[in-house]
Amino acid sequence: MPESGSAGTVQWSALFERVDDYNLSLQGRIRKMLVSAILSGHLPPGAPVPSSRELARALGVARNTTVFAYQQLVVEGYLESRERSGHYVAKGMANQQAVPADAPAAAPPPRTGADWSRRLVFHPFSQRNIVKPANWQSLPYPFSYAQFDAKQFPTAEWRECCLRALSVLDIRMWAPDLIASDDSALVEAIRNQVLPRRGIWAEDNEIMVTLGAQHALYLVATLLIHSHTVVGMEDPGYPDARNIFAHRTERLIPLPVDDEGLIPSPALRECDYVFVTPSHQCPTNATLSMERRVALLELASRTDSILIEDDYETENRYDGHPSPALKSLDKHGRVLYIGSLSKSFAPGLRLGYIVAPRELMVELRALRRLMIRHPPAYLQRAFALFISLGHYHALLRRLSQVYAERAQVLQEAVRTHLPQFSGRPIHGGSSWWVEGPPYLDTDRLAQAALQAGVVIEPGRVFYQDPRSQDHRHIRLGFSSIDRDKIAEGIAALAGVVAQSSR
Question: Which residues form the HTH gntR-type domain (predicted)?
Fold first, then answer.
């Protein structure tokens, strides 16, 4: 490393190459390089920096590029300009820099030997979860569910909304601390453009934005579920919802599902709450029939129970006619409705919402304030623009068509290469629940498939009983795999299946 205080010994071209953020302009990369050198202590206060001409020559860029970079760093207080002398690191940086590399090392803190496992009141790491390889994006055949597809991301439209949210008037709306409130523009967009498409009408004070649907589930569980509460869970069902509820109560009742979704059973009468995914049952993708929806609502009214509806992938019906939300049929306030705004768009955005009666919403907002106050207001404003300008529903329509094409290719590929596998026809969503032959162990299959570059999700994790004998199901997601790669990936999976059956 170069010595502190000697700008002349700094290998500027080498430092510049380390700034590998190629999304930045040349000027931006130069500023990032200099800021890093200053804050790390390699350029101490008062040290000279090369002239703009010298630095431009060393980096192979136009002199104006370095001139503008220096000017901006002067404005921001990193450099100071001395007439007829050049630029120097500002003296005010003395308190901003890291400890010099040659400073004596501080003594390590004494090890207390605390037994953290004994102190923990909850062990979330030990819960069973869906596991995806960290490098799934680099593998050729990612049949992972609900993952990002860069080719489908509406870059220009999203960038437009982000830039609009940076207007002076918009900044004044989202920059202050909203405390327990949400961006009014996003709440209005959800109320007037998102919910009506699901047949739901709600007031502003009945809608709250969350960091994804999972955050909404955690808030509901924290407020409403205690150790004696009985919660009914679809089985197979959403593992993270099950884990959230299991943190609050051990009284989870597995409720079987079939081709029409949740099966009406006497066990429902014992439940204080029932978690249900009626539009696209997780993970089987079955749609709850209208007859069962009505029966479920009537039972909830008679038994004084509450239905928690996770209405994910609501718009992804390939026939263009999504089934009405369970909440839209609710006449007695028995449904807590949870939705996601970003699952189909970009899961990393983490935006969802909950619709609940206002007396409960007051407590939900107070609890959310304790946790995070509110989701980032800038992100809320940008997404509000994304919806109001028509980009959101245009994207959902396009994704529905893309998923329909991929679903057809996937089903044909499985019939061709894996005829011993079967699944109900896909009518919506972005995944397929498939059953293999009796001899198959899909946990082992998933591990072996990774060696062939194929990512699949074994089905056992979706069942409540960790000793479940269901070892034949897999979930094949197709939101992040190219259409042209699907058949090739299934053929590769078929080779793994053939090898494992020997």
Answer: 24-92
